[in-house]
């Protein structure tokens, strides 16, 4: 039987993340944290990282919350709260810097989805490493999703829901970051 990871050490990190993202929905706070290329170029460098945790609207927040819950169900036991926080910080910075350096057409950006792609890729590699048969399926599923997004472009329907273009580039950048974070797993014993 499948059991949910309900121990506080597994439950608190995603709850804290979504509470943090909820607090950042306050408009006056959100506006000073959004990735805005023009303002970043003027020296507001914190926006590269902070933009990962703010959202365009509540539907955007909800879609990302569903992703957080999905990852929690699949991989909560793989991370201590410290490792969870470290992964979120690293992947948030990785994704923001990647967008800033490699996506000059993205002028405004918000959302957790880029770094969440990194978190799920790391978890899929960990699944494979510990012998979970579904790990390879999850990894191939994410890879297929990324390839499809790059081929077909961003979903217009989701874009309408979140009042913004879906930044599929962030998904790819985050996934690559998750692979980089997973490199040490290759040297760990089962």
Number of helices: 10
Spatial strand arrangement across the major sheet = 1-2
- On the 0 to 100 scale, the average pLDDT is 96
Tertiary shape: globular
| Beta-strand proportion | under 5%
Distance between the termini: 23 Å
The major β-sheet equals: 2 strands, antiparallel
Q: Tell me the structural class.
A: mainly alpha
CATH architectural type: Up-down Bundle
Q: What's the CATH topology label?
A: Rhomboid-like fold
* Rg from Cα: 16 Å
Low-confidence stretches: none
Instruction: Give the name of the CATH superfamily.
Output: Rhomboid-like
Strand tally is: 2
Report helical residue fraction: 55-70%
CATH class: Mainly Alpha
Order of helices and strands: HHEHHHHEHHHH
């Amino acid at each position: 039987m499948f059991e949910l990871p309900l121990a506080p050490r597994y439950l608190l990190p995603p709850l804290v993340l979504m509470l943090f993202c909820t607090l950042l929905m306050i408009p006056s706070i959100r506006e000073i944290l959004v990735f805005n290329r023009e303002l970043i170029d003027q020296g507001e460098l914190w926006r590269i990282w902070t933009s990962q945790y703010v959202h365009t609207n509540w539907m955007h927040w909800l879609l990302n919350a569903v992703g957080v819950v999905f990852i929690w169900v699949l991989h909560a036991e793989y991370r201590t709260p410290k490792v969870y926080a470290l992964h979120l910080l690293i992947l948030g910075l990785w994704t923001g810097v990647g967008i800033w350096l490699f996506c000059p057409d993205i002028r405004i950006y918000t959302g957790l989805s880029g770094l969440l792609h990194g978190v799920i890729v790391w978890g899929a590699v960990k699944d494979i490493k510990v012998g979970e048969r579904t790990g390879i399926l999850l990894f191939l599923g994410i890879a297929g999703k990324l390839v499809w997004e790059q081929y077909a472009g961003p979903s217009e329907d989701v874009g309408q829901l979140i009042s913004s273009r879906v930044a599929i580039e962030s998904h790819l950048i985050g996934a690559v970051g998750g692979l980089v974070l997973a490199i040490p797993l290759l040297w760990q014993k089962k």
